[in-house]
Specification:
The protein has 490 residues and is of the alpha+beta class. 55% of the residues lie in helices and 13% in strands.
């Protein structure tokens, strides 16, 4: 009986204790930004309204209330000083021009002080300041039976009631302020929603693409647009997705190539074993030994591909003497194929490379030249005047590679040579190893056909003393396009 299956989240938490497995659902990025933006916009709106109240509406209200208080007090004082026969005309002029009315000997209002808007409070304070006693505004009918506001002013020893039409207060600052707050809150809320979604959408696309990648699905590449950081993030993700895609394709190709190339020697070994049961034959045993060596060579190159991204410390190498040492290592194999190797270059050129990985790159290129191009092989060390890099060139006068084969030739198990024999065409892994190492180290590798026949393999590496920025630029350019690479085999 099989044990019960644990939930995926629990199993993931068991494999990775650092991952949270709580049941609380996290808030979406858009909602998270919406909350912060709404709080920020609310704070900004409150500051704007407060500033408008303190620096605009408050002073204007005080000034307008002081003007009205002065007019009311002056009207009461003028009425007291006028002859009785001219007072009716004065009262009519006040009603017509200023919507003010006079009520002689007005009794004290029975109602106590009550709350008004801030403008009327300013008016009461201004009236109090002019007569030296509290002034209370009260609602009472006016001459036209409309709603008026009245107060009692002490002028010339008499209590003169002065009122004004409530319609004078045509402005409603509190209503305007409330309307502005509501409209501002709606507009800012819509702006916050739009901005939060706009900010979160690229990250949401990245999350969906990463989820596809995590499940093994090949995701669509993200648009590299928008703010710089998001565009760079999308670019890095696209590079990662393409790299994963290439790794998966290479894995499929490697497995298919290994299965194909191992099947032939295994079939020969099985046939030889059947024949050995009937009769012992030294030639069959030798043939089996050769097949074992071929299988071991294939497995060794497969391990080279797997080790292509190994890290190795960088060291300073004198390039021309180092090339001479590599040439000496290949001269026996070159002599067996009637090839010669010549080395040229300045004695003082130094480069900063991982020597072991650089040797694997150069050895593969020299091995390809020895295999495919009997004759003179030239190894040249120089400096690229444009980039300032150290350059190694491996030039031969072999048959070259057709232009339409250049792009596919450097893929694993892609053989330019028509036969399937490792003795004549190799395993198709040499330049796959070169490309993988060059990409990991940020070196520039290219291969082109030479005028007059032959191939020119070119490797650009940093010179000794190269700054970090220059090295980074070299990594940004990376290896050349597939059309400039040749996949040969060693």
């Amino acid at each position: 009986m099989s044990p019960p299956q644990r939930p995926a989240a629990e199993a993931r938490g068991a494999r990775h204790p650092g991952l949270a497995t709580g049941s609380a659902r996290p808030v979406s990025l858009a909602r998270h930004y919406l909350r912060w933006l709404a709080a920020l916009y609310g704070l900004l709106l409150a500051i704007a309204v407060g500033a408008a109240m303190v620096f605009v509406m408050w002073p204007m209200g005080q000034r307008a209330a002081d003007d009205l208080a002065g007019l009311m007090h002056l009207s009461a004082q003028t009425w007291v000083e006028l002859p009785p026969e001219t007072r009716p005309a004065f009262e009519e002029e006040l009603r017509r021009a200023h919507r003010l009315a006079i009520q002689p000997d007005m009794p004290e209002s029975a109602a106590g002080a009550h709350w008004h808007g801030f403008y009327l409070l300013f008016l009461e304070r201004a009236l109090q300041g002019r007569q030296g006693r509290p002034a209370v505004l009260a609602h009472q009918p006016g001459p036209d039976a409309g709603e008026w506001l009245w107060t009692r002013l002490e002028v010339g020893g008499r209590g003169i009631g002065v009122g004004f039409d409530y319609a004078r207060l045509t402005t409603r600052p509190l209503v305007a302020l409330g309307s502005m707050l509501v409209a501002g809150a709606l507009l800012l809320g819509l702006a916050a929603v739009w901005l939060a979604r706009r900010i979160a959408e690229p990250v949401a696309r990245l999350e969906r693409a990463a989820a596809q990648l995590a499940t093994g699905t090949d995701p669509q590449l993200l648009p590299e647009s928008g703010p710089r950081e998001l565009a760079q993030l999308a670019g890095h993700f696209n590079q990662m997705a393409l790299h994963v895609r290439e790794l998966l394709e290479a894995r499929t190709t490697l497995l298919a190539g290994v299965s194909h190339d191992l099947r032939t020697p295994l079939a020969r070994m099985r046939l030889a074993l059947e024949m050995l049961r009937l009769k012992s034959d030294a030639k069959l045993i030798d043939r089996m030994d050769q097949d074992v060596e071929a299988m071991n060579g294939l497995i060794g190159q497969m391990l080279d591909v797997a080790r292509g991204l190994d890290h190795e410390p960088t060291q300073t190498v004198s390039l021309t003497p180092w090339l001479q040492a590599r040439a000496e290592a290949h001269r026996p194999a070159a002599a067996a194929r009637q090839a010669t190797i010549a080395v040229r270059g300045p004695a003082d050129l130094q480069v900063a490379v991982a020597a072991g990985l650089f040797a694997r790159v150069v050895d593969n290129l020299i091995g390809n030249a020895v295999r495919y191009a009997p004759g003179e092989i030239e190894l040249t060390a120089s400096v690229d005047e444009a980039s300032g890099e150290g350059v190694v060139e491996v030039a031969d006068r072999g048959p070259g590679i057709a232009e339409h084969d250049l792009e596919a030739a450097w893929r694993p198990f892609q053989r330019v040579e028509a036969s399937r024999s490792p003795q004549t065409g190799g395993y198709g892994l040499g330049l796959a190893i070169v490309r993988q190492i060059a990409q990991a180290q940020g070196w520039k590798v290219s291969l082109s056909n030479r005028a007059g026949g032959g191939l020119l393999a070119r490797v650009g590496v940093p010179r000794a003393g190269t700054t970090g920025a220059e090295a980074q630029r070299g990594r940004a350019h990376g290896t050349s396009s597939g059309g400039e690479q040749r996949a040969g085999d060693t």
